Automatic annotation (TrEMBL), chains A, B:
Signal peptide: none annotated. InterPro entries: Pyridox_Oxase-rel (IPR024747), Split_barrel_FMN-bd (IPR012349). It comes from the Bacteria. It comes from Bartonella choladocola. Pfam families: Pyridox_ox_2 (PF12900). This is Pyridoxamine 5'-phosphate oxidase family protein. The lineage of its organism: Bacteria, Pseudomonadati, Pseudomonadota, Alphaproteobacteria, Hyphomicrobiales.
Length: 238, 238
């Protein structure tokens, strides 16, 4: 847990609805850690690209991986500027005017320079950590990463230089004179939940999910599960 | 419904796992229409930015809006290149080796030039359409958009020049020799669902949700609801 803030620069300063903003590391990290989907923006020949990927965090560093032959990796290994955004919708906000309709959300924009993890040992550790971060202890049970697999995969690491979180979690805020309009207003919440496990077609009879998957209970909220597994992962790292 | 494809250029050609790719407009549009969250990448002074926003589609055009004072709008109104990515995670794929762990997902990257909707009438229509697209018929019930609100809001429109969808929806594909490893493998699915309506604190007693909200039934999948409301919206446009 940290009580630090990110410094505020031209890049991460939230210009609109700044009351919804936070530069606290604790807030930024919580949003990053409770999601498994990031969008990475980078520039090639002045053209912006936005690639979705699965990210994970270790301290002030974000990690993601990709095929060594992918466009994203080929660009990012040059050590370029990236913006990594993680966001999710928590609900639709229905107001009494179009203008005050809104969404509840949690989002974070992180800025930094991409670096290729070139040290073999660090890369091996990172690829295991990617599994451990989501499924703690699973690397004890799966077959080890081979040299060939290490070659085929690239890992990108980014120190979060500056970041900002932006959130909305409230009901509609209508103009005073509109409250008299007899129309339903409120929030329609959205939740992402863990579904029913689908065993692989070739799974042998009698093989059940390991105890390490207990945290991934069907019906639970994804953000809760990811927060829990990140906590287990961080505790094992230290 | 369209049977057309997007042309394939250097921008949208899927380089890795190209079997997961599709350039069919029908596929691209379905992914766009079944989601309410887009990530817009753009460049300011060679630095990439990735801003999350709520999008909607009309034919070959994507729309989104923002405060006239926001960084994104200030940049995009200059008519610059953008990449709009819409993606969601459908599940975690657990394999018998780290390398074959994966995620099931649906994503689409759209490329084009942002344009500011400057015609007042078109802008008024667009702001109503943003509500209609999610909540068909709701603009009949809410208070009309005022001139002041029109000024405070900017609408961006982008013709989708090229786009590519990329999807994975399958169980693990392990190396033949790893199937003997007695570990659970399969898919942990993720679903985003509509929660229980939260009425506004100031809602007067006896006001219930309009019939137009019937499609937003609690417990339904968000992607299904969004696909349905887009269909209703498109039918009313034509």
């Amino acid at each position: 847990m940290t009580t630090e803030d990110f410094s505020i620069t031209d890049k991460n300063r939230v210009k609109r609805s700044y009351k919804r903003a936070s530069y606290k590391k604790e807030t930024v990290y919580h949003i990053l850690d409770s999601s498994a989907l990031a969008h990475v923006a980078y520039v090639i020949d002045n053209t912006p690209f936005c690639t979705p990927t699965t990210h994970w965090r270790e301290g002030d560093y974000l990690y993601w991986h990709g095929s060594s032959a992918s466009r994203m990796i080929n660009r990012l290994k040059q050590g370029v500027d990236v913006c990594v955004t993680v966001s999710r919708l928590d609900g639709f906000v229905l107001a009494r005017s179009a203008f005050h309709h809104s969404v509840n959300y949690r989002s974070v924009m992180c800025f930094g320079k991409a670096t290729l993890v070139s040290n073999e040992e660090e890369k091996y550790r990172a690829l295991n950590n990617m599994i451990e971060r989501f499924f703690p202890k699973r690397t004890d049970e799966i077959r080890e990463v081979t040299q060939k697999e290490l070659k085929a995969t690239s890992v990108i690491k980014m120190k979060i230089d500056v970041a900002a979180a932006k959130m909305r979690a409230a009901g509609p805020q209508d103009d005073e004179e509109d409250y008299a309009n007899p129309i339903w207003a409120g929030v329609i919440p959205l939740t992402t939940i863990i579904g029913t496990y689908q065993p692989d077609d070739r799974l042998e009879n009698g093989i059940t999910p390991s105890e390490s998957l207990n945290v991934w209970t069907s019906g639970k909220r994804l953000d809760d599960v990811l927060t829990e597994t990140q906590q287990i992962y961080m505790n094992r790292l230290t």
